[in-house]
Amino acid sequence: MELCGLTIHELQEMLRAGQTTSAEITASVFERIDAVENRVRAYITLMKESAIAEAARADEVIRSGEMKALTGIPVALKDIFCTKGVRTTCGSRILHNFIPPYDGTVVEKLRAAGAVITGKTNMDEFAMGSSTETSFFGVTRNPWDLARIPGGSSGGSAAAVAADECIASLGSDTGGSIRQPAALCGVVGLKPTYGRVSRYGLIAFASSLDQIGPFTKDVEDCAILMNVIAGCDPRESTSVPEDVPDYRTFLGRGIEGWRVGIPKEYFIDGIDPEVGAAIRESIRVIEKAGAKCIEVSLPHTDYCVAVYYIVAPAEASSNLARYDGVKYGFRSEDNRDLLDMYKKTRSSGFGEEVKRRIMIGTYALSSGYYDAYYRKASQVRALIKRDFERAFAECDCILTPTSPTPAFKVGEKTDDPMQMYLSDIFTISANLAPIPGMSVPCGYTTSGLPIGVQFLAGHFQEGRLIQIASAYESQAKIERRRPAL
Amino acid sequence: MEKISKDEVAYVANLARLSLDGEAVVRFTTQLNDILLYMDKLGQVDTTGVEPVSHAIARKNAFRPDTIAASLPIEASLANAPDARGSCFQVPKVIE
């Protein structure tokens, strides 16, 4: 196996034993990028030069015996995180030339932990999408089948891990944008509880739903990255001063005697039969690992998509009002006056899906419609939260499919926004509630497309997710395949 | 059933500072109608007396120490500006 195909913990063992160097690992990752990136197109911006310099510094640190949590490990960042001096586009024309003057908190934390940053990954424009097709910078392909989408919105981060174009990556999840692409690309993805990870320096989409989390090749790597990024931040007033445990201590603990809830509302007609079979098998695996699976009910599940597609666009329409061509980013030319400049800038700077969501959000918040849409949605959101509180009174953790289908074809859903929105049907509830959720590979379809199982837990119970995911991973022994690129 | 008319779409576009051509207005009217019709299902839920969620996770008074720290220098703040003069962002003339 090439170095780029290994996990963080495998590489760390080799680094500690002096069997390899960060320079070699980083070179292996960029050789892989050279070999496959023209087909996968996971990145918007590559940072090869700075990565090589960071790797050289990491090797000095390792020689001095001061290795930190991620010293020398190549990590990719979704292009939604502000990186000082490195273009940050959010997949949009309107930010195509934006060079942030500061690093976001998670970027600072990765750097402080010694990570080597490989580049900025592709994403749906402003994270609005489930397929990475709305990016201004082109479509990322699923490494398992290049005719298919990698999921979204963090499709580039998921594809880069699956294709070994980095060792791990970070993404953001507003309605499933980490978990769904993780499932579709066959990697592990975790969306923490709202407030667990600081959003400072994360370009805002829907501020009450957005959360940052890792993409990794296995559960142990997920725990390693969570240890680095979790924690309260004085610069981010919604981050929560809740103690952060050492997530590695949850690995290998087992789930003997756990009660795992299976929500009956998540087993709907629209589920692909192979996905359904893989999830039923996952339930058997969890029981073999010593847990008892019980039926639970989340009665307002059917309303999650409707609530989400009011709340998220409403918040987005407000957040995206700042893109007016004044302070940064793209500005249109030949403007008659200020209003003309705003309109021309926004109309040619934003793509179709972003405009559609701004329109929905502006409408839902406009005079006379606020009560019917935003207020009503926020009330139903309260009921969805309550559903989970009640369910978690009966069980330690919930198991569901991550996505109703495996990766769909490029272009298959682009003409029908409502069909695209429904592909988030199992992931949205965790953002609304807003509880942690994790997708773990649970098998492949007969045509070789990955399938993911989702675990959900109560507020700030990321450790519990890592515990069950780790137990699942060692019991299921899902074969670690590599996409044939 | 029509939830939103072409005129309303044009009106909302103006509120959102977007200019849509005739074709886009027609397309968005159809799509927004589909989406808003789907939203109608929320009407089935009895929300009498339910307090709407206003904070994802309730947290009161997120204070931090009021200490002076370095702020962004003017040059860095203006570095991304499409147009700037002196220490200001420059825009088309607003006042006649």
Could you describe the 3D structure shown?
The complex is a heterodimer of chains A (485) and B (96). Chain A is α/β, with parallel strands linked by helices. Chain A contains 15 helices and eleven strands. Chain A has a domain at 3-253 and 437-447 and 458-476: Amidase signature (AS) enzymes, CATH 3.90.1300.10. In chain A, strands 1-3-2-4-6-5-10-11-9-7-8 form an eleven-stranded mixed beta sheet, sandwiched between helices. In chain A, helix 2 packs antiparallel against helix 3 (48-63), helix 5 (155-162) runs parallel beside helix 6 (179-185) and helix 9 crosses helix 11. The longest helix of chain A is centred in the C-terminal third of the chain and has 24 residues, at 371-394. The model of chain A has no long low-confidence stretch (mean pLDDT 97). Chain B is mainly α and 96 residues long. Chain B has a domain at 6-43: Histone, subunit A, CATH 1.10.20. Chain B has three helices and two strands; from the N terminus they run αααββ. Classes of the chains: A alpha/beta (485), B mainly alpha (96). Chains A and B meet through helix 9, helix 10, helix 11, helix 12 and helix 13 of A and helix 1 and helix 2 of B.
